[in-house]
Design a protein that fits this description.
With 409 residues, the protein is of the alpha/beta class. The strands form 4 sheets. The chain has a 6-stranded mixed β-sheet with strand order 2-1-3-8-7-6, sandwiched between helices. Helix 2 packs parallel to helix 6, helix 3 packs across helix 4 and helix 9 runs parallel beside helix 14. Helix content is 38%, strand content 26%.
Amino acid sequence: MNAGIITIGTELLIGSVLDTNSKYLSEKLSEIGVHVSYQLSLRDDFIELSTQIKYLLGKVDILFLCGGLGPTEDDITKEALAEVIDKKLVLDEYQYKKMLDRFSKLKKIMSPNNKKQAYVIEGSKVLDNKWGTAPGEVIEYNDKKIFLFPGPPKEFEPMINYYLKSNIKENNGIVLKSLNITGLGESTIEEIIRNLNLEKEHISINTFAHFYDTEIKIIAEGLDEHSLNVEVNNIVSKLYSTFGNFLYSEGEVKPKEALVRKLIEKNLTIGFAESITGGLLSSKLTSVKNASKVLKNSIISYSNESKVQVLKVSEDTLNNFGAVSYETSIEMAEGLYNMGLCDIAVSITGEAGPNPSEKEIGTVFVCYYYKNYFEVKEYLFSGNRTEIQERAADAVITHLLLNIDKEGE
């Protein structure tokens, strides 16, 4: 089965609101074996909406109309659909009473235009909205299925979770698996996977690049779900043996989350001495559950005075080599480690711009310090100030994730 999604609202087209509904719905449809062939975002324009509804009804098995079910004049989704499929709008007395009761409990007077939300398309199955005012609907039309859902995500998402599966019957089984790789570019990962010849007619393997990692998504479809699971698990095993520790997790796990888990597993603590990133590294880790078990101290040593007084960096080192240097990064990490609060000390110093002070903009030195072992990595990042800081922080997390076994020896 294939589906089309239309999200309706001028606010989506002028950038006032981000369309998260299409992404959320597409993920849920993929989980039950429904292919999304079209995604459209339209203004509150009756003629354009009617035209696109007609077009997609000729292309898909299931059509989703998201938004435009509110009380205002520009909420025209039901009206446009009713005209296309030649149906009337009728008042649903239960929905109207529910609406009146809702306003009464809130001790508010319901304006007359709110009654509009209680009108539904004749012959539709009404999907009660337990999270808001406007109900959803599902309509059978010429062997097609048409869904209407309210647009606000706080209503849309729970209604999708509550009603989607029970109103779509799909005979095929589907098995999805997501794997996450860091430290390799998407093009490299793609080439390696294609050379393994793992895909079959009913199994697809695709890569999706994120900021500092790449997702591998395996989709297998067929009638025998047990056999699909066996095939997918064999592919996963092959990918693990091929990519090694570059393949760091499965499912929706970000590198920073995987790093915290790995540090906990190895009973290791970490600390950061940050100059260029100004606390960004620490912030990324502390956003992860249980980070307090591994992150024991973090110092923002943005000034040379702080580097000298807090981290005990030599003034001679700063004078001879500069704050953005191989030598300074080592002394920053050593000073942090000598405080005795962490097993692994990481320092980071660099030039974020917009005006260079010592080195070329984007130059970053990172020192990874563990007992008597240390390693310094030099990077050159492109982008504006914020992008350089983000790339630097993510590079540190990636390096730690790929090398934590060596750090813990």
